[in-house]
Design goal:
284 residues; Cytochrome Bc1 Complex, Chain D, domain 2
Length: 284
């Protein structure tokens, strides 16, 4: 019994230590920033944030994190230049307090390289794609293969210009050049931890696995590379053709049934019954 109590106490202490080990800043960074940024790991969708506290003052950083769009709209040169450098990708606004942003900045400072080294805006080198990954990513994108945790197929909201798949939805941004705009690691990070409210809501409780995110990013990378050689396929004519063929088949079946029923006049069977009844009476 004593050993059992000791074991439970040890588990509680270890669990409490693990929770306490994650600072508020680290927790907020994981929830808010990790999909688009690294600390010393290179560029993803947005810049590497290592030593960002040396590059911008605190007030500017707080304003940019809370509402980068407002800062850009105000004509702030630094904000506009940053958006232009990242293919017009504007960071989503975040409902964080000043103190919460300070917690994030403290976490970044604590995990940044010592000193103030020069910023090297390098893209994280993605792994080589395989044919199996591309095929799996294509199947997941259009919904031929379901996501392990039950998320909706990408094509229900997004479109890609490629001969390999049919035209997708138009509710969200076209992903044909997503890898060029966001980098492949950025695409993977975004799918695993969506930064946009609509996407976050759609995949709430239904996260993509590492394998699924890698497969879709592989498919999008190939799509991005070949999209200039692709033409928009006119699926409207194809679907119309299939519809006409279906109508002709249905009309043909009705025609066959009609031919079967027009061997005699409409009242043929009625007259036949009446004649039979008269003959029966005459016999009686």
């Amino acid at each position: 019994m004593y050993r059992a109590y000791l074991t439970v106490l040890l588990v509680l202490v270890v669990g409490a230590t693990a929770v306490a080990a994650q600072s508020p800043g680290e927790s907020l960074f994981t929830q808010t920033c990790v999909a688009c940024h690294t600390i010393g790991g290179g560029r993803l969708i947005g810049p590497d944030l290592a030593n960002v506290h040396y590059r911008r003052d605190e007030a500017w950083l707080i304003s940019f994190v809370q509402s980068s769009q407002s800062l850009v709209a105000s004509g702030d040169t630094a904000a506009s230049s940053l958006v232009a450098a990242y293919n017009g990708m504007i960071m989503p606004d975040h409902p964080l307090t000043d103190d919460q942003v300070r917690e994030i900045l403290a976490h970044i400072a604590l995990n940044s390289p010592a000193g103030n080294p020069p910023v090297v805006d390098e893209v994280v080198d993605p792994a080589e794609v395989t044919t199996a990954q591309i095929d799996m990513g294509q199947s997941l994108f259009v919904g031929r293969m379901p996501f392990e945790n039950g998320g909706a197929a990408c094509s229900s909201c997004h479109n890609v210009r490629t001969d390999a798949v049919m035209t997708g939805g138009s509710l969200a941004k076209d992903l044909t050049t997503a890898v060029t705009r966001l980098t492949r690691p950025g695409v993977e990070a975004m799918m695993k931890s969506p930064p946009f409210p609509a996407m976050r809501t759609a995949f709430e409780g239904k996260p993509l696995t590492e394998e699924e995110a890698a497969a879709i990013s592989a498919f999008l990378q190939v799509t991005d590379e070949v999209h200039l050689t692709q033409e928009d396929r006119d699926y409207g004519r194809t679907l119309t053709g299939y519809g006409l063929v279906g109508v002709l088949i249905v009309l043909g079946l009705f025609s066959l049934l009609g031919i079967r029923n027009t061997k005699h006049t409409v009242n043929y069977h009625i007259y036949g019954r009446q004649i039979k009844t008269r003959k029966d009476r005459q016999v009686i």
